[in-house]
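User: Predict cyclic-guanylate-specific phosphodiesterase's structure from this.
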Amino acid sequence: MAKFARIFIVPKHRLWLNILISLLTFGAMVVSAAWYSIHSSVETMEMEMVEAEEHFAELRQRLTDTFAIVERDVTATPCSAPFMAQLRRVAFLPDGLSEFLYAPRGKVECSTASHRFEQAIDFGKPDIVRTYGRLWVNRDLGVLGLDGERGTIVLRGNIAVVVPISAARFSKPDWLDVEGVIRADTGQWWHRGGDEGIYEQVKAGGEHWLLSGMLSNFSCGPLGLHCVAVRINLPALISSQRPLIDAVVVMMAVLSLFLTREFDKMMQRYWSFESRLRRSLDANSVMCVYQPLMSLEHNEIVGCEVLARWRDIDGSTVYPDRFLPLIEQEAATLKFTELVARRACDELSRMLPAGRRLQVNFNIFPCDLDHKKLLAVYAGFLAQPERFDVVLEIIESEEIPPNAQHEIEMLRAAGVKTFIDDFGSGYSTMQSLAALSVDGVKLDRSFAMAADDTMMGRMLHHAVEMIHATGRVMVIEGVETQERLRLLRKMKTQIDLVQGYYISHPLPIACFIDYLEARAVEPVQPRRRKKPAVVAA
Ligand SMILES: Nc1nc2c(ncn2[C@@H]2O[C@@H]3COP(=O)(O)O[C@H]4[C@@H](O)[C@H](n5cnc6c(=O)[nH]c(N)nc65)O[C@@H]4COP(=O)(O)O[C@H]3[C@H]2O)c(=O)[nH]1
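Assistant:
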């Protein structure tokens, strides 16, 4: 899941994902469009094949009708003048068949074009013998006086009809190859019309496996005499549709980019940091680290500040500066505080060695000082008063609500202390310090972190003096160096607790417990100090 989520979260992966999606959608559209156009071309091909078959069936019918008319109307003595006149009358019928022969036993004695031949013309053995008639296929008709013409001679009884090559011509789209053939029972075949060579190629197969015989077909009429082979000529089909194909490809490219953008927007909405946090802010994703608090006087670790981290769904750790504003925006502050408290209570209760007492500082949002629910949030710690002292640091994210004082007193009555956090920055001003009877003040880390020769560095002494004047417990955080710790020690003003990277970075629970044991700290004795004064605003 974490790996899967990273695809949508990491910008570099997202770019590749978008490229992949647009290629896939474009590819899918191209394949579907190609499939659709091949299918409709195949339908056209099948229709053309049926039409070609019908053409041969029609030709056969014309022949059958012609033979019937000849039998009925041509009654004169064969090859006599009246016979020829009767034959010519039939030849003038508008069915395209105009050349008739009188050919008993296959020997032509006279014809409508050449009248009587001095010597009967013998075409020899017929190519095809059927009950339908005897056929001499694609013969040179020059001997019959039809110079330069070829045609098929069909003999039934003593009368033969010449079917010219032109009688088997098909009309068809340019991108379709059609060939009509006539076949003997022996399997021998002759070209009858259309594009020569198609029949052989179609019979040989050899189409691409992907199209598996889709682009060609072959069919024979009911007598098996005439067969039609059809084949889609792909290059011709593509070039005949070129402008349309170009337009469709451009349209598909635009559409795939549009779809990819919409998909990306949807994914961004779904996988945005805000949505991820909203979806998975729960007991499993909220983690705690513990930063030791050291008593400056005794050089002992007396407590820790619980700092929250959020584990993103891709497994990465997110720091508070990123998620806290969102939690406030989503009005999920109390839920979040509760998750942190529950996690810390679970970890510390399990891991802290028996007999060890610890001050546990939590950060709380000012707005939650209005809910009267904080005692319930820390109930787990309050149930173990011999092990834990709870301190709530009011963070400086927003203004402190007017009735916070009441809540602070309620907390104090239950043994929970409150500190003002990050004093000297944001909303935590002298005014809020004066207005609230908090137990302690934590000076903003920017003072201790600042170099001596900077304004903040010089102000450190004054800030310490000022907090001291209020009589509150004083915590200095942001102690990053030994020199700074030494300087704080040398100050005449009493500083109670120090915190910072020089002492320790925030640690996961196991490391924190190891750290405590390594420092072999004795249980801390509570120190006497004067009660914090409640200063009226
Ligand atoms: N440069 C430097 N930094 C130091 C040093 N010592 C400590 N820090 C950092 O200073 C921050 C101290 O916490 P904070 O002032 O309460 O400031 C906290 C606090 O206002 C807020 N926060 C953290 N956890 C929680 C929480 O559970 N609830 C609420 N409401 N706020 C939290 O987020 C802020 C930032 O927390 P983190 O990022 O953990 O950052 C921590 C800590 O890692 C040092 O010597 N040098």
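The two ends are 53 Å apart (CA to CA).
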